[in-house]
Specification:
Elements (H helix, E strand, L loop, with lengths): L2 H4 L12 H5 L7 H22 L1 E2 L2 H17 L6 H21 L4 E5 L2 E5 L2 H20 L5 H35 L1
Antiparallel strand pairs: 1-3, 2-3
Helix pairs in contact: 3-6, 4-7, 5-7, 6-7
Length: 180
């Protein structure tokens, strides 16, 4: 018995995987409630992380923007080349805004370890536009909302990158002043 027959996988499926078929696997009676619940959890997690602070490491500071950038790139599936190109160009505007909105980034020392607090504004806007784009992809995929949220999401991803640059720069200054 072949592996395909054992798991009842058809080698050539006549119907492509759709968003609605993926939503049918969500263990809630109404998939919209599951998505809203996950979005609320994401908002809480991002705001708490930004407010309480995190231990500083180069990897941690740049890993979040890298992961979120990859998530944003995944959401560009089926977008036109014009939207993708314009969004990448507008990401540079986001980097500048990220530097400007990161004025309240704090670097502090606790238990002989360096910590940092992110900007709640940047965390809020990124999470907001990421959530709105996912909702648009799931429930209104043919509308221009997806394209609009793609542009806003790219700007806020640039803001995350700009914020990471500010955090790294401020940590370098704080580390030099402590070790001088």
């Amino acid at each position: 018995m072949s592996l395909l027959n054992m798991f009842a996988i058809q080698p050539s499926s006549s119907s492509p995987i759709s968003i609605s078929s993926l939503l049918s696997y969500i263990p809630f009676k109404y998939p919209a409630y599951a998505v809203i619940f996950l979005i609320i959890l994401l908002f809480i997690y991002r705001v708490v992380r930004a407010k309480l602070g995190e231990k500083f490491s180069d990897t941690r500071v740049f890993l979040s923007p890298a992961i979120y950038s990859l998530l944003v790139l995944v959401t560009f599936i089926y977008q036109s080349e014009l939207i993708i190109l314009s969004s990448l160009i507008i990401a540079f505007l986001g980097i500048i805004l990220g530097v400007l909105f990161s004025r309240n980034v704090k670097i502090f020392q606790k238990n002989n370890r360096m910590y940092y607090k992110r900007s709640i504004v940047v965390a809020f806007f990124f999470t907001l536009f990421f959530s709105l784009k996912i909702l648009a992809l799931l429930y209104y995929p043919t509308l221009y909302l997806v394209s609009i949220f793609s542009v806003f999401l790219t700007v806020t991803t640039g803001m995350l990158i700009g914020e990471a640059l500010v955090i790294y720069h401020r940590h370098s200054k704080a580390y030099k002043s402590i070790n001088s």
